[in-house]
Amino acid sequence: MAEGEHHHHLFHNKKEGEKPLDYKEEEKHHKHHEHAGELGVVAAGAYALHEKHKSGKDPEHAHKHKIEEEVAAAGAVGAGGYVFHEHHEKKEAKKEDEEAHGKKHHHLF
């Protein structure tokens, strides 16, 4: 891979003549997505707790509420995975920005 190329995103199609990547903007982009994912984790977790409470209060439909609780919990786990992914992408963009501006990482140990 030639120096300066950026291939870890699937849908970032660059056309000829476009400006080079702005790593600060990319870092900000991933930070916003990370925060949105965190909100998704909180919302799905809150809904799972709500359904758990409803399953105890409504024994006639407890099975339905239990299933909805489990689906919401799975959604929360999935959103957590997305947050982890975006955090990694944000760190990678920051590292690329530092490398592009001459800050080198010397890993001695």
TrEMBL record:
Chain positions covered by the region annotation Disordered: 1-38, 78-109
Biased composition (Basic and acidic residues): 13-28, 84-101
Segments crossing the lipid bilayer: none
Cited PANTHER family: ABSCISIC STRESS-RIPENING PROTEIN 2, ABSCISIC STRESS-RIPENING PROTEIN 5
Family stated for the protein in its record: Belongs to the abscisic acid and water stress-induced protein family.
Name used for this protein in its record: Uncharacterized protein
Taxonomic source organism: Nyssa sinensis
